[in-house]
User: Which sequence fits this backbone?
DNA sequence: AACTCGGGGGC
DNA sequence: GCCCCAGAGTT
């Protein structure tokens, strides 16, 4: 055993576990998915929580279960309807994979979420973390989770330096997580570690004064709680300028364009790249801007949208909007185009501006719609 | 191993 | 502004 491991002895480990579990039972936050053991509900919550804060996921979780209360209901749905419920939550491949997995579960597992770790791991959208979380919480299976919270907690307990996401270091953290795991309360244990990371052992300004395991913490002994873990280096941001057309007819209807098919990475055209900015969901007609937003949008509407050329004076610009998608910083110039009759487009769907939620649209599209309606 | 994928809450 | 969140899939 590496001597810096914390806690040191088996006896200390027992105390460590009972302290953290006791703390968890007293201080855990109430969450909708903590009121059930249904593997489907646990699964859904874990997918929604991937890279997403608890508070953000809760309303989506409730709405989703009202519409799709079971694996079979989800498996029988249209992907479009699943995405519509996911709209605004981000990382839309989660929703697509969730539904693909539901169909696999119905076909191969009799509609029951598999209890076997390898079988769970084989489902789309389920990696090591999610498989361990679902099986431990729903069935008490002895798998330790390792997420951002747990990694930070262990990194401080053991005073680990360096980027935690780096391969060998992440594997070492997984080993430590497995050693700490209380296998007789695996589900609660995993949640306790995450809860500690989320509410006490936070990224900045950890509240060591209330930490139930502070005396086991090596970072605390060394005065490193503020400097560990070391920050991840991030990719440099990239600026993008977008021009979009918000058509409005007298009835308050507008036109959205459909999600573009995923193009192969190499021959990805500018147009399809642009569609990725809308998360490959329904979106307003849009053009990437190099010089003049109005000119390039008008040309785009004609050449790509198949519309008749629209006179420049019809395009009334809104104040620029800003939106961030991963490392891209998007500046959006939205033009409201009031028309007596919506122009015919090659593709696209006509719907009332205030019913955008009837289609799967990204947060960016919603942001543009809000700004246009506020005029 | 490096990239990509959303959006927002908290400071 | 900046960080990073109950990560996974692809290249």
Assistant:
């Amino acid at each position: 055993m590496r001597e810096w491991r914390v806690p040191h002895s088996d006896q200390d480990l027992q105390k460590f576990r009972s302290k953290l579990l006791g703390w968890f039972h007293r201080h855990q936050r109430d969450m909708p998915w903590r009121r059930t053991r249904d593997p489907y509900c646990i699964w859904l919550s874990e997918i929604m929580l991937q890279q997403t804060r608890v508070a953000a996921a809760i309303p989506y979780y409730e709405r989703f279960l009202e519409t799709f209360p079971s694996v079979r209901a989800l498996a029988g749905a249209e992907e479009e309807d699943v995405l519509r419920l996911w709209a605004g939550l981000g990382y839309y491949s989660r929703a697509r994979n969730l539904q693909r997995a539901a169909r696999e579960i119905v076909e191969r597992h009799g509609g029951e979420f598999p209890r076997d770790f390898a079988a769970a791991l084989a489902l789309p959208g389920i990696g090591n973390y999610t498989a361990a979380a679902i099986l431990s919480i729903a069935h008490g299976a002895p798998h330790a989770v390792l997420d951002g919270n747990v990694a930070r907690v262990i990194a401080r307990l053991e005073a680990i330096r360096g980027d935690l996401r780096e391969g060998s270091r992440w594997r070492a953290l997984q080993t430590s997580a497995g050693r700490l795991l209380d296998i007789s309360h695996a589900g609660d244990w995993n949640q306790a570690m995450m809860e500690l990371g989320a509410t006490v052992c936070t990224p900045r300004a950890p509240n060591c004064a209330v930490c139930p395991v502070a005396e086991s913490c090596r970072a605390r002994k060394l005065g490193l709680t503020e400097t560990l873990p070391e920050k991840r280096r991030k990719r440099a941001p990239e600026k993008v300028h977008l021009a979009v057309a918000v058509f409005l007819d007298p009835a308050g209807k507008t036109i959205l364009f459909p999600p573009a098919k995923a193009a192969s990475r190499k021959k990805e055209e500018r147009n399809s790249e642009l569609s990725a900015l809308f998360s490959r969901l329904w979106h307003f007609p849009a053009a990437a801007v190099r010089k003049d937003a109005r000119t390039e949008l008008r040309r785009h509407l004609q050449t790509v949208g198949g519309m008749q050329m629209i006179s420049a004076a019809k395009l009334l610009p809104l104040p620029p909007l800003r939106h961030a998608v991963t490392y891209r910083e998007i500046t959006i110039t939205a033009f409201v185009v009031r028309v007596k009759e919506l122009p015919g487009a090659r593709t696209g769907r006509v719907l009332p501006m205030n019913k955008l939620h009837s289609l799967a649209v990204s947060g960016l599209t919603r942001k543009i719609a809000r700004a246009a309606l506020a005029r």
About this structure: Strands of chain A lie at 238-248, 253-256, 286-288, 315-317, 321-325, 328-338, 349-352. Residues 10-222 of chain A form a domain with the Endonuclease III; domain 1 fold (CATH 1.10.340.30). Confidence is low (pLDDT under 50) at residues 264-269 of chain A.
